[in-house]
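2.7 Reproducibility. Because tokenized structures are sensitive to small changes in the input, we list the exact sequence used for N-dimethylarginine dimethylaminohydrolase, including any N-terminal residues retained from the expression construct. No trimming or masking was applied before prediction.
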Amino acid sequence: MTSVSLLGPGDEPIVLGVTTPTAPVRVPTARRYLMCPPEYFTVEYAINPWMDPTQPIDTRLAVEQWTALKDTYERLGHQVDLIEPQPGLPDMVFAANSGTVIDGQVLGARFRAEQRGPEADHFRRWFLANGYTSVVMPERTNEAEGDFTWTGEYLLAGTGFRTDPMAHAEAQEVLGVPVVSLRLVDPRYYHLDVALFVLADDLIAYYPEAFSPGTRRVLRRLFPDAVIATAEDAACLGLNAVSDGRNVVLPVEATNLAEQVARRGFEPVFVDISELRKSGGGPKCCTMELRD
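Resulting structure tokens (single pass, no recycling of outputs):
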């Protein structure tokens, strides 16, 4: 066994325990992401337990952290497309909530909170202006990749706080992929993407206590070798991570989770999202994957 030393956001070395020599060789795949600069980011309302409008927000710092995240993706060889931010929509930076794209088919979003409602149409127009010919706007409430996670075989679909369970059937019809419904029960983890993420096609990481007992049984059946996150991992939004099949971009505080994924042959890549976390968002929330 060998120790793993990585660079954190400030280029300081971070040592992460050990890797296992028998871990699979992980191969990254180039991805294409859509992101929105947080030019108007602030917390002026509360629609999840993380948001407190009475606390100060440093928009400049949020922009710096978001830019470091974007630069990280590009350094790893991924393409990043941008959508223009709009005044009055401070949460538009969380691009993952506004569309689900599989094989070039787009299912748009319908937000539960009225404050975020207008975001959906801005993204719809971006898709149409950028060559997407099949864009369907949903009839049921769905907050896109906030609650829809593609494994390569199944669309894992969260419900319980935001996305209407009937939206799962709608997603299956529009996207033409099998859907597995998962029920969230902890309001801190109001979206699936803050409780679970896909490491590779056959492997996920998740926090069991975020899910109902029946959903936990489903996840154990589908992913018996899953990485199990701790309460500390979940509390820093460590599961709001992005994997390209080898590199795993996750919050700098999620050191236990990083050590676990390193043992499985993945390469943890730390980013600081502390300012964006004040609105309940992390790396994945800022990142919509365009699967063309």
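The CA atoms of residues 81 and 285 lie 15 Å apart.
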